[in-house]
């Protein structure tokens, strides 16, 4: 009898160490017992899919430092600043209905300077 115990943690640990889901699947198939080789496919598609999903799980979120801009008094102010950040390529995320936006740390100073400039001009 051959037993293979795969867990979410073991697959993700393998991925952290540079092993891909396809390499794991290839290893399982290459070292399958003779009785398993009689089956087609050798490994159930749901098992293969689950291994791939566990491997991809690590990469579905990306973390980036940023600065949150909120408390805009007017939608127009939000849109002007968001559009500027977007033009610069420093806008990470925005939520127009709630007037939230996040810009990169690198773009924060430039966006802040622009905001002060347009506020000063509108107050004059």
From TrEMBL:
Residues 49-116 form the Transcription factor Tfb2 C-terminal domain. GO terms for biological process: nucleotide-excision repair; transcription by RNA polymerase II. Gene3D superfamilies: 3.30.70.2610. The keyword Metal-binding does not apply. The keyword Amino-acid biosynthesis does not apply. Its main location: nucleus. Keywords: DNA damage, DNA repair, Nucleus, Transcription, Transcription regulation. InterPro entries: Tfb2_C (IPR040662), TFIIH_p52/Tfb2 (IPR004598). GO terms for molecular function: ATPase activator activity; double-stranded DNA binding. It is found in: Nucleus. GO terms for cellular component: transcription factor TFIIH core complex; transcription factor TFIIH holo complex. Belongs to the TFB2 family. Component of the 7-subunit TFIIH core complex composed of XPB/ERCC3, XPD/ERCC2, GTF2H1, GTF2H2, GTF2H3, GTF2H4 and GTF2H5, which is active in NER. The core complex associates with the 3-subunit CDK-activating kinase (CAK) module composed of CCNH/cyclin H, CDK7 and MNAT1 to form the 10-subunit holoenzyme (holo-TFIIH) active in transcription. PANTHER family: GENERAL TRANSCRIPTION FACTOR IIH SUBUNIT 4, TFIIH, POLYPEPTIDE 4. Component of the general transcription and DNA repair factor IIH (TFIIH) core complex which is involved in general and transcription-coupled nucleotide excision repair (NER) of damaged DNA. Component of the general transcription and DNA repair factor IIH (TFIIH) core complex, which is involved in general and transcription-coupled nucleotide excision repair (NER) of damaged DNA and, when complexed to CAK, in RNA transcription by RNA polymerase II. In NER, TFIIH acts by opening DNA around the lesion to allow the excision of the damaged oligonucleotide and its replacement by a new DNA fragment. In transcription, TFIIH has an essential role in transcription initiation. This is General transcription factor IIH subunit 4. It comes from Ciona savignyi.
